[in-house]
Design brief:
The protein has 104 residues and is α+β, with helices and mostly antiparallel strands. 37% of the residues lie in helices and 25% in strands. It is built from three helices and four strands; from the N terminus they run ββββααα. It has helices at residues 41-49, 53-60, 81-101; strands at 2-5, 10-16, 22-29, 34-40. The protein has a four-stranded antiparallel β-sheet. Helix 1 packs antiparallel against helix 2 (53-60). The chain is globular, with a radius of gyration of 14 Å.
């Protein structure tokens, strides 16, 4: 699903598990839809366990903590798996390329 937050001009894209918990999250900001986050819960947990959480967070961000059933004030729009994967791949590529250019 995806939701728009007009206060920050950000589109949020979410992949949820069967219980409604976010397992991957993408954030695209502004009219150019610049990726500012593309986080995976599994990767986040692995980074935490390896002591590299700050590095992961600074590059890819994090995922929403409450399950989707607890969210308020959003108007979710459905997405297909293919649509999510297309946005995920674009966001990860752009974030990784930006980090490489900046020497991160």
């Amino acid at each position: 699903m995806r939701c728009y937050w007009d206060e920050e001009d950000v589109w949020f894209y979410f992949e949820l598990d069967a219980e409604g918990w976010v397992i991957r999250q993408i954030e695209l900001q502004g009219p150019e839809l610049t990726p500012i986050a593309a986080a995976s819960l599994l990767e986040w947990q692995q980074a935490r366990d390896a002591g590299r959480l700050a590095e992961y967070d600074s590059m890819f961000g994090g995922t929403a903590e409450p399950s989707a059933s607890e969210w308020e004030g959003h108007d979710p729009q459905p997405l297909t798996c293919e649509e999510f994967e297309e946005v995920w791949n674009m966001a990860r590529r752009q974030i990784t390329e930006r980090a490489a250019r900046n020497g991160s």
